[in-house]
Amino acid sequence: MAQIDLGRGRGSSNNKPRLVMIIADPGRESTAAMEWALSHAVVEGDDILLLHVNMPNPHNGAAAGPSRSGSGGSSGSPIAVFLGAAGSDASSSSGEFMEAMRAACRARYPRARVHAERVEPATEGREAKAQTILAESQRRGVELLVIGHRRVSTFLGYTFLSASASSRGHDSTAEFLIEHSKCLCVSVQKKGQNAGYLLNTKTHKNFWLLA
Question: What are the residue boundaries of the UspA domain, all occurrences included (predicted)?
């Protein structure tokens, strides 16, 4: 199977750094996406933008810290451990997980310019988050967009999403961005602590990458 062309180092040809956008949310999916991006996609000279869309929370606005356990989580990685320690009391500060993710990026790439921004949804409706991310990526000239993909379980041929996944529209967001982004969009799902990653792009479906 052909490898995914991530366009590493393309910005050096015109002296303009490549901008990599990672979608930041307080959960293990975003942790896994950032872990993959820092380990396999980002290179020296890239700029990193962590973007969070402030979507209305159906659970009274409670902010959840980065998940550190559970099936398919990434609790064993150095980045995930760092995020878990930094975000253990994230409920007291809705922006704490963003600072933890930014610090993890800077720890891995000390010379990189790392920005963390929160934006309000540009539209309303089911695809508001996806459309907002799409607009921001196009406006900023993003060359690589990375988003975590929520695990989907199956039973007897039927597909099930958790209530939180359905309410957040997380998977539909990733699929929308893969289909409509002008830049390369990669959705990342971690398959267990040491089992590797399942990647999806417009041209690669269920691409398996060992850890």
Answer: 20-183
Q: State the pTM of this model.
A: 0.77
User: So where are the chain's domains?
Assistant: 16-209
104 φ, ψ to 5°?
Answer: -65, -40
| Helix, strand, coil abundance in the chain, percent, nearest 5 | 35, 20, 45
Element (H, E) at 59: none
The mean per-residue pLDDT over the stretch 184-199 comes to: 88
Over range 123-129, report the average pLDDT.
Answer: 90
Tell me the per-residue pLDDT of 12-49, one tens digit each, with 9 for 90 and over.
456 789 999 999 999 899 999 999 999 999 999 999 99
Residue 174 reports pLDDT greater than 70: yes
Select from 94, 134, 138 the least CA-distant residue to 116.
Answer: 94
Task: Give the homologous superfamily in CATH for domain 16-209.
Answer: HUPs (3.40.50.620)
Chain-centre distance of CA 19, in angstroms? 14
**Whole-angstrom distance, CA of residue 123 vs CA of residue 107:** 35
**CA 152, CA 133: separation in Å to the nearest integer?**
22
| CA–CA dist 23, 30 (Å, integer) | 7
Nearest to 114 by CA among 37, 186, 13, 197: 37
